[in-house]
Amino acid sequence: MASQQEILDINGVDVHVTVDGPENALALTFAHALSLDLRSFDPQVAAFRDKYKVVRLDLRGHGKSDVGGGPFSIEDLAGDVAGVLDRLRIKRTHFVGSSLGAMAGMALAFNYRDRLSSLTFMASQGALPPERIVTARESLAKRRASDATPKTTFADQTEAMLARLLGDIDEATATETFALLRQILGETTLFGQARAYEAIFGMNYDTRLTEITTPTLVLAGAADSSTPPERMQMYADGIAGARMAILKKAGHFQNFETPEAFNSALIAFLNGLPD
Question: Quick one: which of 12, 87, 110, 227 has the most CB atoms within 10 Å?
């Protein structure tokens, strides 16, 4: 079954959206990680579209969505999600965010909490550690000093990124899945990623965790070196009533690397929520 695809003008930015599942079902919205796009949630569509209206979007500067005319913030990304919900006439949604998408989910929980039925937060953080900011700024400075254009991708960096972020999994058993992951990463532009990093630099949500009242699931990949389980535990402890699950062998892209375990954890969480 093919997804319904649209390019929507949201807050003056063209945003690529796909919708699967029954029109009047409860909504389940997915927002992807930094450098990826909505295709990274392909392994979830078949598992959830029978029961939920599955919404996926490319965040600004990723996939088929425009980067916009100037800098943007994480709050802007949350506003884009809310705008998509408005256009699709969705009052409330379960929201699942990975990395950059999870940051947008936190901003939704602060600023649009009445639109959320639940929040699933994975492979992310509410503020970058100072040393990570220094390293990222140095990397961005090198890119700006190069001959890169707004269309330049970082295809040549894909293998190094996968080696750093993937967990302890057998790639030979998931050839097609990882081929798609490589394709997505190879199509992401340096310009779009740089804009997203600037948004992340301006974010500090770690001191606001007690403001999140939405039912929350925190997911961690046991082999995630970027946002390890002990880092994710801080969010589970800081958000009242949050549940946490650690997915064995998964790295930073847990829904892609261990989709069955991820889907099972999400289904259990959603089924356990009050009606």
Answer: 227
